[in-house]
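Hi R.,

As promised on Friday, here is the backbone we talked about, encoded as structure tokens. Could you run it through your design pipeline when you get a chance and send me back a sequence?
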């Protein structure tokens, strides 16, 4: 097992102490990171003590330590999963060859692009969420927000470690640029679409952690298969932390749904808004928005980039070991495509459809969560159900980008689509209504009107003082 050094200025299990050049580079980046955190991280609360989890090891049992920490004092460290002995490339043209411990020169640009794209999402999400601390529905939720934020910060460290270790001067420049782009900024935006979208309220936040963080899970699973072993080990450990973020999203939406059902039953007209709740139609519209934005993060349906990443052994499928054929040279994917204004089908060589293969696995996982929310509705005696829209609805990237598909995946006239837009996506009026519900509830054990309480955390009750505000 790797040695963990927790006393170093940058906690790590990569023996930083013995690589003076790398240590110097990272120690130079550290103050820039902290400056960015103070400027773009959670607004206020920097002096507050938050009950946070910090990664301190990489073994499954006891990898994290829980305690009260002020966020700027969080110990952002560099942790890689332990190496797997005699690990071999599991897919593509190099199946069975030993994995690379150093950067293969011919794949330098592709790997840099993957690492930078992944890295860029981490600070972006912190920027998107920076104002939410002012309106959390409970102390428990406030703490979860900050937990997610500090760990996205750590994931940025993870990618910056790879950039500094393996990409020389280019890598150092990219690491600086990761702190310079800004979510939603017209002149220097973040790289991927969803990471420039505002997260204005807590319904957005829970949808984001449910759907967008879950894209992160599948991208990380695909990178964990990489033949570039340091990338594989880095992303494998990131997945350990990521699970909690998706838990926050999935259970956050579930708690809203539970509360909504309760309010529907409490009033003869089932009017939820008059009671300070969020009606199912509004929940569905937010679900539609964040699901579509997150589907875009898988890239185009037909992608030669994805084919070359796969061929080269850089980015695999999730759990590649579950597939029989690791070359993926023979198969095809039956892809719905639009030709002459009609939906048809095209047989796409499997390697060019790798983004779609990953997207399908993601959709199944999302469906599992939606089924769970629907069970809560059923238990409450509510007959309406939530659903996932078609993969073609409201897409900005790929084959269906900009085409007027409705949530059922049927092509509409553009004018009809525009007319019905506010049935399917959050309207200005929805946003205004939700904004009106966003008030901080920071008394221990109290909760906002639009969401049900949670169980608590680490065996602690819901009314625990998760953030010390006094
Ligand atoms: N927005 O060949 P294509 C996470 C560009 S989330 C804007 O189809 P490819 C997290 C693309 O760059 C996970 N542009 O795409 C979650 C290309 O541009 P060029 C993040 C986009 O390369 C919550 C062109 O369109 N991880 O961790 O196969 C909180 C054609 O692209 C988008 C990764 O991203 C878009 N959505 O796939 C915190 C993993 N999509 O070259 C964290 C690393 C595509 O023509 N990245 N484009 O100028 C990748 O694997 C791939 O870059 C992508 C794109 C899957 C993102």
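Update: got your reply. Pasting your designed sequence below so it's all in one thread:
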């Amino acid at each position: 097992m790797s040695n963990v050094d927790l006393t170093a200025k940058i906690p790590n299990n990569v023996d930083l102490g013995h690589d003076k050049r790398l240590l110097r580079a990272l120690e130079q980046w550290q103050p820039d990171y902290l400056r960015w955190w103070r400027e773009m991280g959670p607004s206020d609360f920097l002096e507050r003590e938050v009950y946070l989890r910090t990664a301190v090891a990489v073994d499954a049992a006891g990898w994290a330590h829980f305690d009260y920490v002020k966020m700027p004092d969080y110990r952002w460290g560099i942790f890689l999963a332990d190496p797997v002995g005699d690990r071999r490339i599991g897919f593509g043209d190099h199946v069975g060859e030993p994995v690379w411990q150093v950067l293969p020169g011919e794949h330098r640009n592709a790997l840099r692009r993957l690492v930078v794209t992944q890295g860029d999402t981490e600070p972006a999400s912190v920027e998107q969420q920076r104002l939410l601390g002012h309106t959390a529905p409970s102390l428990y939720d406030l703490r979860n927000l900050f937990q997610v934020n500090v760990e996205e910060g750590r994931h940025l460290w993870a990618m910056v470690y790879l950039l500094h270790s393996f990409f020389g001067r280019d890598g150092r420049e990219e690491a600086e640029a990761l702190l310079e782009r800004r979510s939603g900024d017209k002149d220097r935006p973040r790289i991927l679409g969803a990471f420039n979208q505002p997260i204005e309220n807590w319904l957005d936040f829970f949808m984001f952690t449910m759907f967008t963080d879950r894209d992160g899970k599948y991208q990380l699973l695909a990178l964990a298969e990489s033949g570039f072993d340091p990338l594989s080990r880095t992303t494998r450990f990131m997945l350990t932390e990521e699970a909690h973020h998706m838990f926050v999203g999935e259970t956050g939406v579930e708690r809203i749904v539970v509360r909504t059902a309760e309010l529907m039953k409490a009033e003869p007209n089932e009017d939820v808004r008059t009671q300070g709740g969020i009606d199912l139609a509004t929940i569905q519209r937010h679900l539609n928005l964040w699901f579509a934005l997150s589907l875009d993060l898988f890239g185009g349906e037909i992608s030669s980039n994805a084919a070359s990443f796969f061929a080269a052994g850089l980015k695999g499928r999730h759990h590649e070991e579950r597939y029989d054929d690791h070359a993926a040279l023979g198969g095809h994917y039956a892809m719905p495509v639009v030709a002459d204004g009609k939906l048809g089908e095209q047989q796409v060589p499997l390697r060019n459809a790798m983004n779609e293969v990953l997207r399908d696995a993601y959709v199944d996982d999302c469906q599992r969560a939606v089924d769970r929310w629907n069970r809560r509705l059923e238990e409450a005696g509510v007959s309406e159900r939530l659903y996932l829209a078609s993969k073609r609805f409201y897409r900005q990237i790929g084959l269906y980008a900009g085409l007027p598909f409705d949530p059922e995946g049927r092509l509409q006239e553009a004018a009809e689509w525009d007319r019905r837009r506010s049935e399917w996506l959050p309207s200005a009026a929805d946003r205004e209504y939700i904004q009106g519900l966003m008030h901080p509830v920071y008394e221990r054990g109290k909760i906002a009107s639009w969401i049900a309480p949670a169980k608590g955390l680490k065996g602690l009750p819901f009314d625990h003082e998760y953030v010390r505000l006094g």
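One thing I noticed while checking it: Residues 114, 117-118, 121-122, 125, 152, 192-193, 212-213, 215-216, 219, 296-300, 303, 305-306, 315, 355, 397 surround benzoyl coenzyme A (CB under 6 Å).

Thanks again,
M.
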